[in-house]
Every structure is written in C-alpha cells, then in structure tokens.
From TrEMBL, chains A, B:
GO terms for molecular function: DNA binding; metal ion binding. GO terms for biological process: negative regulation of DNA-templated transcription. InterPro entries: Metal_Tscrpt_repr, Metal_Tscrpt_repr_sf. This is Copper-sensing transcriptional repressor CsoR. The lineage of its organism: Bacteria, Bacillati, Bacillota, Negativicutes, Selenomonadales. The gene is csoR_2.
Length: 91, 91
C-alpha cells in the first residue's frame, strides 16, 4: 500500500475512465456485428491508450515514489517491484 | 458494415465486458492511491486480455469473413482492410 499523492493521479483516473468507455463502445460494435477490421482498429487504439496511461503511471512512480523509497531506505524493495512490473509489461 | 455471424461473437463480447470491468477496478485502485507496480501489473494484464481478444476476432475474420469476401469477389478489399488493421495493431 502506497498512499502518497501522485501528480498525475487525476489524469490517470480520467484516462482509465475513457478506456473503460471506449471498451464498452467496442463491445457494442461487436454485438452489432460490425466489420472485423474496424473492431481491430478500435482495440489497437485502446491498447495504445493503455500504454500511454502506463507511461504516465511510470513517470509519477519514478518522480515521486523513488524519492519516497530512497528517503525511507526502501530503494531495494522499490527496484525489485518495479522490475517485476516492467517484466510483465515488456514481453 | 458486415452483418454475417461470427462463431466467437458472444465470447468476444464477454471478454470485452470483462476488460471493461477490469479497467473500472484498476481506475478504482488508482483513485485509492494504490502502489504503482501493482497498478502496472493490472494494466499489463488488461493489455494481454485485449491481445487475446484481438486474436479471437482475427480467427473469426479469417475463418468466416475471408470465405464470405471470396464468394462475393471482394477479396482485394478484404486484404486491404485487414492489412491496414494489422499495421495499426503490430507496431
């Protein structure tokens, strides 16, 4: 649990809200039997939006959480958890 | 517009519904100030789920839409649109 404030927290929440809405709209497109390439284009757009959101979270994490971890003497735990997260992200 | 039935249409709709719910849950995690690596892991999981959904759509597209396009003499348009979609997907 990490309750300190992130600069882009509100932006991240807003981006995830847009991704949620976009996914709902694409679900509707599929239910209506819309053309596959159109659906694939929309899924690629959602994936791109997710990647940009992950970048913003990572920016906050490096700018704020790293400083916090170093101050608390927790930089080894910080690096381990960050590495695990990046290993999942970058395949 | 392409209104013919896809074998996995219901599965694709269900997967997108799960991705929508997962995104909503991650949005809540961020709003609660949860640890960045935990959030990044969840975003990576959503991206993986999107990729698997895209693969399922592509499978339907190749199995059903290609046959339909060939029967209708529209295979050139089919290939052009598929190529455009894949170009967006594979960066």
């Amino acid at each position: 649990m990490d309750s300190h404030v992130h600069t882009h927290q509100k932006q991240v929440v807003n981006r995830l809200a847009r991704i949620e809405g976009h996914t709902r709209a694409v679900k509707q497109m599929v239910a209506e039997g819309r053309d596959c390439p159109e659906v694939l284009l929309q899924i690629a757009a959602i994936r791109k939006a997710l990647d940009n959101t992950a970048k913003l979270i990572l920016k906050d994490h490096l700018e704020h959480c790293l400083v916090h971890a170093v101050n608390e003497g927790e930089h080894e735990e910080f690096m381990g958890k960050l590495q695990a997260a990046l290993n999942h992200y970058i395949r």
